[in-house]
Amino acid sequence: MSSKLSIILVWISVICLLTIGLVMVASTGVWIEAEDEQYSLLRRQALFTIGGLILAFILSGFRFEVVRPYTWWIIGGAALLLALCYVPGIGREVNGARRWINLGFQFQPSECAKICLIIFLAHWYAKYRDSAATFVKGFLWPGIVFAFIIGLIFFEKDMGTAAALGVAGFCVIFAAGANLIYLGLSCVLGLIIGGYFILGNENRMGRIEAWRAPEAYMSGAGLQQAQAKLAMELGGLNGTGLGNSTVKHGSLPFAHTDFIFAPLGEEFGLWGTMGVLLCFSLFCFAGISLAIQTKDPFYRLLVVGIIAIIFCPAMLNIAVVTAALPNTGLPLPFISFGGTNLVFSLGALGILTSIQRHSPVPLPQYDILSGKKEASIDVRL
Q1: pTM summary value
Q2: DSSP string covering 209-250, please?
Q3: What is the pLDDT along the chain (381 residues), one digit of tens a residue?
Q4: What is 267-287 written as a DSSP string?
Q5: Residue 99 has what DSSP assignment?
Q6: Which of left, alpha, beta for 89 (phi over 0: left; psi -120 to 50: alpha)?
Q7: Which of 289, 296, 343, 338 is nearest to 317 (CA)?
Q8: Cβ distance 48 to 360 under 8 Å?
Q9: Do residues 202 and 155 touch, judged by C-beta distance below 8 A?
Q10: Per-residue CA distances from 281 to 272, 301, 316, 361 (Å)
Q11: Where are the alpha helices (DSSP H) in the chain?
């Protein structure tokens, strides 16, 4: 599959997800606020979508190799934005987590930091690709930066984003050819450290207990997952029909954001949820194909990272809603209501499009059977 077809399939899957998202925000949002605010959620989501698409269009024309000399500034700026979450008057606490900052407008710096960290890792391993399997340059130094950014996000009480970004970063480091022993040991160490902070935190332990038996915690931490399971059961195979969800009437908190997959399953049934999974699977498959077609090491690792920072949170979100994992508070990319995640996710797709347009054309290939020279693969739109 050519890179042109790959990026087309990426965008087809995303457009389908955006359409589903707008429909579900309209369906769930109508019960969130008073009548004069009912349609503001849909209007705001539409504006976020347009803004994200404009950003994607702008970034698609930008050659990202020019940012490589400034990689340390980029990762430093991301760390500074994350640190501002802890500054009184700038950082804002919502539902017990300090994920937001206000700089005249409100946004979550972790969404920006995800892209910045992927750029840093792609640059580092492209620069030191011959040392990727060594301990110092292939593991220690990039690992310190990686752990620092993850730690800043984790201590904002945003364990879900930290976990998803950890998995995405692992994908990049693995694809770069890092030593598997070092990677395995770092995973064990990460699980030990994460377990320590989970066991020592009453709220996080409460979520795990509620996950194990959500029906026993209906008045607290288990409410969302219990109601989400109920919605899926009510939806059955064919669903109750658009607009006919019952859990969105207030029994399921955050039905339009983190748990939007539940009313989607109730209204569109198993076919609707499988359609969403198909779109994300197509997105991942086409993205991996694009990475394979991309010959430049920096661009190739950047593609892997961008696909991972969207696909991994999506799978974690769906796992939470279906009670396969404890509640983490992650949105469903392209579908959940919210501006920061949507705009930066679409911006990341602009980077993918830029890579497809501007990466070097692969060398001519040869047919092994016939010995004839094949045409060069066209990697530009």
Answers
A1: 0.89
A2: HHHHSGGGGTTTTTHHHHHHHHHHHHHTTT-S-TT--SGGGT
A3: 788 999 999 999 999 999 999 999 988 877 665 444 545 788 899 999 999 999 999 999 988 889 999 999 999 999 999 999 988 888 887 766 778 888 877 889 999 999 999 999 999 999 999 999 999 999 999 999 999 999 999 888 788 899 999 999 999 999 999 999 999 999 999 888 888 887 777 777 777 777 777 777 666 677 888 888 889 999 999 999 988 888 887 778 888 889 999 999 999 999 999 999 999 999 999 999 999 999 899 999 999 999 999 999 999 999 999 988 888 878 999 999 988 999 999 999 999 999 999 876 454 444 434 444 444 333 323
A4: HHHHHHHHHHHHHHHHHHHHH
A5: E
A6: left
A7: 338
A8: no
A9: no
A10: 14, 19, 14, 27
A11: 3-29, 40-60, 71-84, 109-127, 141-154, 159-176, 180-199, 202-212, 223-235, 261-293, 297-321, 339-358
Tokens 């770069």, located at residue: 176
Residues, the chain: 381
